């Protein structure tokens, strides 16, 4: 659990972070979003004390971070940055094993852990262990970055725009993997991004920052539905907020059980977001879809009126 | 900035000034000799006129230290003024030392500058450098600060510092001195000019032929590793041989010693930095700019003359700067093979164990090198601002 | 390649006598064509020793100073040291040597001092450039992973900066070999001796002997660096 109490950071006369309070529960993925220069990265880096906060307190599991030894604190917290920061003179395996080595794990345990992580992140050790960072593609390098951060099995992971430099397809697949990893590992993650779709797709809690202050925080759907002001509304997508919300709602939440009517020809998975269903309707020029389960067996139907949340006919 | 107002002490200034004070109080400031041959008798600063004149230097130094304790931009400006005053006051202190220590009835009596005075000059210049950085002064402003200092030294040398040993050496050979500077510069100019023409031609040829590029750089790199003295020496024999066989060469004044081997060696050394910079400059022009120039319909010639060359010019000029500074130093070595120039004084002085004669050669060489560096640096800056950002 | 040059250097040092016939061609009229005031081996050893001592000191001080001013505690001194290194570079080596003599007298000491001072500059400059040229993200990651200052320096900064630092040391040593020869004029005996003596006595054969040996020494050392220098780490 991470708690920030009235934290402020000044650089000279400039206030980068202004009196913010925040609580990230254990196992929660908290996304900090905002325009560039809003203080989100600074906030992140105050947690592992790469930047020292000027006022207030930051607690980790109830203990102020200032009471930890700086280095020991950071070894307990995974850290992933946009440009990976892999050491160019070390192999992939050595890069991943960095923190366990700093923690003086026995050599065999490090080797096993590195192999395990490489498997976890889809980097076959036989192929990648001996490679150097410059031989990797952007997506592979960022996987190594994530593996390195997870190496010593930290409870907390700090990620500073980890997928910001990747092409859209790679980014999306890494987002998927992160979600799967999180479902299995239940880390406490603070995630900085300026990509709103990324934040909406990944976050349990969304924190919007503007000029060093937190303007709103809550579950993504809450923010979409009730933005406190125009800034949050436009940051969350303006008129496209409807589509974004549709992206967060599953088909199963709006469908009707199978009725007496004929099945519609086009089918949609019950786990798909409403947004996909809407897109299918637009594409096929229909106003009704058959909803199917994982085994492609029809279990319900979805009409355009239901999809947009209108009253039942 | 408000937070800077109560800034922590500037330890750089404090330690430099403290080192200066310690040197000033403990090392020899001047030495006095009745003539050129006898070794001088050393004197510390506090031994001159009961130590009163030394306050002229000590008090402003303490002042600078006090200002550096709580530096803000106003105090640092004040410190600049104090240091400039110090640099200008030093010849006055020397004049006092001359008046107190040198017997005016001995025409050959001389006052040598001692370790502490040299050290002070050096440390104060460092202090000025540090202050210039902290205050963010432009390069020309830094140089402008030195003008009053130079004026003060000029005045003192002309009127009160006649017995200064350096001055005595100069008075003995003022004509030679002026001629040596002229000759030194002429040799440097001829070598740099030739290597500029040759270097640009070579670089252009290298851009056409990849094979020439590799071979060319290999040869030039190899030349650069041969020590200058060795290269000068190695040119003696073939040139002597040539001038003995080929009449028109000897008629030109080419011989194993003198300007010919010096000039050749200087050109050989200058080629590498010149070719490298020209090549890198021409190749390093942003591909996007070139592409858009071609895309706008400029011909090859137009692209080269209107885009590539102007953008490359500052880097080429950087090559000229490196080459010139290097050549000024190498020409001093060339004095060993009879090429003349300021190096002559250095080696004469070393031969006669006359240290002030050595200084008479070495100081102007350093000054010339610094001046050339500043001049070409400013020129390149100017080109960058005007032409390419 | 280095072996070839070293072999040539040794052969020339020990077997100069055998070349008398060739050298006689250069200087047919002189009584003596082989420099005999000292053995070439002794001169070579002297030369190498002076350069070695000065270079080792310069490396220790130069790398040390550059590391010191890139630490948080020494950061105040960074601008001054950087400017000093680039301004110092414009000082001609001969002038530095000449200025060392009045302070330290004749002999080997002023040469070592001058070589040390002059050799410092490329080392300081390159060490600074090497350390500061490291991708800030790498530095940030190293700290973020919980490495201590010493660990960052030893495991990240120095290995990554090593090629640039070594290039500075190479420049420094090359200049020092050349400048040490000029030291023969201030009374140190080394490979510059035959050259100076040859110039003074008008005996070109002496000059050739000294010049060839210094040239071979310089090229040998340079090729040693070339051979054992680590390649620049990719990206």
Automatic annotation (TrEMBL), chain A:
Q: Name one GO molecular function term.
A: ATP binding
Q: Give the ABC transporter domain ranges.
A: 2-236
Answer whether the UniProt record assigns the keyword ATP-binding to this protein: yes
Matching entries from InterPro entries are given as: AAA+_ATPase, ABC_transporter-like_ATP-bd, ABC_transporter-like_CS, CBS_dom_sf, P-loop_NTPase
Q: Could you tell me which Pfam families the record lists for this protein?
A: ABC_tran
The keyword Transmembrane helix belongs to this UniProt entry's keyword annotation? no
- Keywords for this entry? ATP-binding, Nucleotide-binding, Transport
Instruction: Report which superkingdom the organism of origin falls in.
Output: Bacteria
**Family from the record:** Belongs to the ABC transporter superfamily.
- Which PANTHER family does UniProt cross-reference here? GLYCINE BETAINE UPTAKE SYSTEM ATP-BINDING PROTEIN YEHX, OSMOPROTECTANT IMPORT ATP-BINDING PROTEIN OSMV
Q: What is this protein called?
A: ABC transporter ATP-binding protein
Q: Which organism is it from?
A: Billgrantia campisalis
UniProtKB/TrEMBL annotation, chain C:
Primary localization: membrane
Alphabetized UniProt keyword annotations: Membrane, Transmembrane, Transmembrane helix, Transport
Where does it localize? Cell membrane
The ABC transmembrane type-1 domain covers 44-225
Membrane-crossing residue ranges in chain numbering:
43-69, 90-118, 206-225
Lipid bilayer topology: Multi-pass membrane protein
**InterPro entries, alphabetically?**
ABC_transp_perm/SBD, MetI-like, MetI-like_sf
Similarity comment: Belongs to the binding-protein-dependent transport system permease family.
Q: Which PANTHER family match?
A: GLYCINE BETAINE UPTAKE SYSTEM PERMEASE PROTEIN YEHW (PTHR30177:SF32), GLYCINE BETAINE/L-PROLINE TRANSPORT SYSTEM PERMEASE PROTEIN PROW (PTHR30177)
Name of this protein: ABC transporter permease
